[in-house]
Design goal:
It is built from 17 helices and five strands. It is an alpha/beta fold. The radius of gyration is 29 Å and the shape is elongated.
């Protein structure tokens, strides 16, 4: 059994019109800011008005922005002197961060990278506000937490189990999706995070996850290939293949790998059905392959040593790899 700790609710508050020049923007924002998005939003707001107020809190005798940077900048671009605002009662930077990321997580336009960043920030702020939750809550949750700590198959679980378990229902994401997102952001290097912002990669969690699983130097090499002009790879897995083999897979190799992966995932009965449907073609291909092998064997046997040496030299890497696979060397 785990102790239940609610995340703070973002309570409704009376709206006020606050001078834009009285609002400070914290440097450490959870979401990356895109000026082009703010400009596009400014055109919408100029037509239909601001549907959702920004949220601020008092810090000293000034207002500090909690949520709504794009809306604030859109208002500024439209030449507004004041902006509709609600006042947060967050008593600390961590409580303000919780409000910021909770509002942003509820918005569908977050990129996969932004979502990973938000969930990581939410975890950090949550555990600073609830230090007992980081270690599994009260004594009643100790058995469960200790079991997770001893599970070598899931290194992320001990650190983020409590946070994810208490947060999943609140933000409408599964515990596993939260754990995955937090781990992606944590394992990406600072440089990789910065390079991905605003790119196609920021919207592809599968690729971000594959990138995060690499060492930081390999992450750099992968991004160099993906973001070169023209790109030397179309996705993270392809970039890893280039790094390993010195070239991108051909169309035929991609097709082969896809079919091979699909066949490997089939159960025996399913595989039997596929083979039965394609039996004639498979038998024909096997026959042709056997004929080809027999022909090549005769050609090699009839070659003089210097001619064979030239063939070996031209195909040295593949021949050596074949000998290693068969245990000959």
């Amino acid at each position: 059994m785990t102790v239940h700790i609610d995340l703070p609710e973002i309570r409704a508050a009376a709206e006020q019109d606050i001078k834009i020049t009285d609002i400070d923007i914290p440097e450490d924002r959870a979401r990356s800011f895109d000026p082009e998005e703010a400009a596009a939003l400014a055109a919408v707001i100029a037509t239909q008005g601001m549907l959702h107020p920004v949220r601020v809190r008092m810090v000293g005798n000034r207002y500090s922005l909690v949520a709504g940077l794009r809306r604030l900048e859109a208002a500024r671009l439209n030449g507004w002197e004041r902006v509709r605002s609600t006042i947060s009662d967050a008593a600390s930077d961590d409580e303000a961060r919780l409000e910021e990321v909770m509002e942003n997580l509820a918005r569908a336009e977050l990129s996969a990278l932004d979502r990973c960043h938000h969930l990581y920030d939410l975890k950090q702020a949550y555990e600073r506000l609830h230090p007992d939750a980081k270690n599994g809550g009260d004594r009643r949750s100790e058995t469960r937490t200790q079991k997770l700590r001893s599970d070598p198959a899931d290194h992320a679980a001990p650190e983020i189990f409590s946070f994810a378990a208490h947060t999943a229902e609140k933000i409408g994401l599964s515990r596993r999706s939260i754990e995955t997102a937090v781990k992606i952001w944590k394992d990406l290097s600072v440089a990789s995070r910065a390079r991905c912002v605003g790119t196609w990669l920021a919207g592809h969690q599968t690729n971000l996850r594959a990138l995060s699983e690499q060492t930081h130097p390999i992450q750099k090499n992968v991004l160099d290939l993906l973001f070169s002009d023209p790109p030397k790879a179309n996705n993270v897995q392809e970039a890893l293949t280039v790094i390993e083999n010195g070239r991108a897979p051909t169309h035929v190799e991609k097709k082969f790998n896809g079919v091979n992966k699909a066949l490997a995932a089939l159960k025996d009965g399913e595989l039997d059905a596929v083979l039965a449907t394609n039996q004639d073609r498979l038998l024909e291909r096997v026959s042709r392959m056997e004929q080809g092998i027999a022909t090549l064997t005769k050609i090699f046997a009839d070659m003089k040593d210097d001619e064979l040496d030239q063939i070996v030299a031209a195909n040295e890497a593949r021949i050596v790899a074949s000998l290693k696979r068969r245990g000959a060397i």
